[in-house]
Design goal:
Elements (H helix, E strand, L loop, with lengths): L3 E4 L4 E4 L7 E5 L4 E7 L5 E3 L10 E2 L2 E4 L2 E4 L1 H4 L9 E2 L10 H4 L9 E4 L7 E5 L2 E3 L1 H20 L5 E6 L5 H13 L3 E7 H8 L9 E9 L4 E9 L2 E10 L4 H14 L5 H6 L1 H17 L5 E6 L2 E6 H26 L8 E5 L6 H11 L12 H16 L4 E2 L1 E2 L4 E5 L3 E6 L4 E2 L1 E7 L9 E7 L9 E8 L12 E7 L5 E7 L5 E6 L7 H13 L1 H30 L6 H19 L3 H31 L5
Parallel strand pairs: 3-13, 13-14, 15-20, 17-21
Antiparallel strand pairs: 1-2, 3-4, 4-5, 4-6, 7-8, 7-9, 10-11, 11-12, 15-16, 16-17, 18-19, 22-25, 23-24, 23-27, 26-29, 27-28, 29-30, 30-31
Bound molecules: adenosine monophosphate.
């Protein structure tokens, strides 16, 4: 194994020359993807295209009949062949059709559901269908080929990055895409974690730091707050907007030119090629204004002009939205701004001066932007790959789960096993039992969410634990065990401890949770907390009362000969009252009736007990 020492300040790696295996790091992006590795000099580098300039591979796939083309050539087909040219696949990973229905118009190609219960999305191209995993695998395969060409060796292993908020299904889908591309995916790593690693943050074992990773790309925005403590990376919080990025700045410039009557909006409606040209000029203007004060160009007969000041006015509301997210992330992380030690910039749009200045001001410190913001995640993934290759043993990556995980219990209640914001990897378990005599199987249904009723949460999957030996209700000891691994993938194990019967199932969320929805779910859980608590209390009272009634029935049957007719009728009358209370909505009434039944039955129970004891004693010596 090669020995590596990493220069902590710059995040560069010095390595003894090695001919060993190379594990690549891949940034599988919404707009662009990149692959990187640690070169023989020990530095993380990205794989460039054949002319050695550009490392960015547009995440676009063009279907040319049976053939597929990935990258810049595919991107060029976006206007010409919108139905055969697939972009933004990352937005579809692990998603159901319901999840994307509202922004269906965003895609110029056909997105439909896959006709299964899970209703996962698939994309129609011509008369063929592709799921997001297959589509992503084509991008990954292209990156694999590029790395193999650059390195002159076969590449089999990779680390792939995903946004910190990706859920189990989305991480699993990314892993599957890698596998389909012929890659052994050793680790799924959070993008902000990779960005930190590229800056060398966290590579020093004794380091304790809190950092903010601000990632503004072409179409999405994420802010993550990480704590790094002795080589352990922990995501304290994430926030963002899945529809906010460089494209919005371009659109704002186009709108401005239209309102300034530089160009006739009607004409743009009719002439799509002209509209596309104008969009490209708007992007060029934005990029120019990152290092110049004015932009001037001609498009046909139109003169296009924009100054930095004008652009700043257009950009301000968009930048403000990113700052609002930063404030939300800081609130969630429950730390003051002064605790942030470093702010790392990721994504091409962080080159916009107003973005940099505003983020500087917000966090009260100069941001870290010395590494190319387009490449920083891939470079960090390469550093992580190197750690996995065994060269940096002391580093462990740790994240948190964004939503609580639990199972359905009697009455449709959610019983949380792993609470939200738990650090992962994590193992947690709890014991349950049966509610019916002789029960030989038990349904285990896992959910994700914060609400008290599982119906309001998201189902991750279910299975039936079979072969429990028949026992009276309450006797079996069934341990439900959740294991959430470092990739955020959940394994659920159910084991009946008396008999040893067990089953383990890897859960996949049939529906990915878009970030906005995650926020919505959390908000709803807060808004409904009072009602949820009431419903939970009512259901719990009903369940307990139901068990009391069952026990009462059993008790009467077993002891019928020692009670008088009046006594039996008395118990039945109390039981009837309790049943009526169960059918109602008043939990206090249920408790009162349970109490009354218990009070009434207590002397009878004592008598029954005395009888049992005296029978047991008969003929026995003490
Ligand atoms: P990414 O998704 O991280 O590759 O980000 C791409 C986005 O960064 C696109 O919207 C680009 O227009 C934008 N971008 C790239 N270079 C610059 C620049 N110099 N100034 C402003 N935006 C840029």
């Amino acid at each position: 194994m090669a020995k590596i020492s990493i220069n902590l300040q710059k995040g560069t790696v010095e390595k003894e020359k090695t001919k060993g295996e190379v594990i690549v790091g891949i940034d599988l992006g919404t707009t662009n993807s990149l692959v990187a590795y640690i070169n023989t000099e020990g530095f993380p580098v990205t794989v460039k295209d054949s002319d050695g300039k550009n490392a960015l591979v547009p995440s676009v796939i063009w279907f040319n009949g049976e053939q597929t083309v990935v990258g810049t050539a595919a991107k060029d087909k976006l206007i010409e062949e919108p139905h055969n040219t697939i972009f933004s696949v990352k937005r579809l990973m692990g998603k159901s059709y319901n999840d994307i229905r509202d922004y269906q118009g965003f895609f110029s190609y056909t997105v439909i559901d896959n006709d299964t219960d899970e209703r996962l999305v698939k994309v129609r191209v011509g008369d063929k269908f592709y799921n997001p995993i297959e589509l992503s695998s084509k991008i990954l395969f292209e990156l694999k080929l590029r790395a193999e060409a650059a390195l002159g060796m076969e590449i089999q292993k990779a680390v792939i990055t995903v946004p910190a908020y990706f859920n189990d299904a989305q991480r699993q889908a990314t892993r599957d895409a890698g596998r389909l591309a012929g890659l052994d995916v050793l680790r799924i790593v959070n993008e902000p974690t990779a960005a930190s690693l590229a800056y060398g943050i966290g590579l020093n074992k004794d380091e304790v730091k809190t950092i903010a990773v601000f990632d503004l790309g072409g179409g999405t925005f994420d802010i993550s707050i990480l704590r790094i403590d002795n080589g352990i990376f922990e995501v304290l919080s994430t926030h963002g907007d899945t529809f906010l990025g460089g494209d919005d700045f371009d659109r704002a410039i186009m709108q401005y030119w239209m309102t300034q009557n530089v160009i006739d909006p009607q004409l743009l409606q009719e002439n799509r090629a002209l509209a596309q040209d104008l969009r490209l000029r708007a992007e060029a203007a934005k990029k120019t204004l990152s290092f110049q004060d004015t932009y001037t160009d001609k498009l046909n007969n139109y003169t296009l002009k924009l100054s930095r000041n004008e652009f700043d006015v257009l950009a301000e509301p968009l930048v403000q939205r990113t700052l609002d997210s930063c404030a939300a992330a800081m609130r969630d992380a429950r730390i003051p701004l002064e605790d942030i030690d470093e702010v790392v910039m990721v994504g091409g749009s962080t080159r916009i001066p107003l973005v940099k200045e505003s983020v500087d001001k917000f966090f009260g410190r100069a941001v870290d932007d010395s590494i190319n913001p387009d490449e920083v995640v891939a470079l960090g993934a390469a550093v992580q790959a190197d750690i996995l290759a065994g060269n940096q043993k002391d580093i462990l990556l740790l994240d948190v789960t964004p939503l609580s995980l639990g199972i359905e219990t009697v009455g449709g209640l959610m019983d949380v096993i792993i609470p939200r914001n738990s650090k992962i990897p994590i193992k947690a378990g709890r014991q349950y039992t049966t509610s019916v005599d002789g029960q030989i199987k038990l349904k285990v249904a896992a959910y994700q969410g914060e609400r008290d009723l599982v119906a309001d949460n998201r189902k991750l999957g279910e299975f039936v634990l079979k072969g429990i030996p028949p026992m009276p209700a309450g006797l079996p000891k069934i341990e439900i065990h959740f294991l959430l691994n470092a990739d955020g993938i959940l394994k659920v194990r159910a084991k009946e401890l008396r008999s040893g019967v067990e089953q383990t199932v890897e859960m996949r969320s049939p529906y990915g949770i878009p970030e906005e929805e995650m926020g919505k779910m959390l908000l709803e859980s807060i808004q409904n907390a009072k009602t949820d608590m009431k419903i939970r209390a009512l259901i719990e009272a009903r369940t307990e009362a139901g068990q009391v009634l069952q026990a009462t029935e059993k008790f009467l049957k077993q002891n019928v000969e020692i009670f008088s007719k009046e006594e039996v009728e008395g118990v039945l009358a109390q039981a009837k009252g309790l049943q009526e209370a169960i059918d109602g909505e008043d939990k206090d009434l249920i408790h009162n009736c349970m109490e009354a039944l218990n009070e009434y039955a207590r002397p009878l129970a004592e008598r029954a007990m005395d009888k049992t004891i005296s029978e047991a004693m008969k003929g026995k010596m003490i």
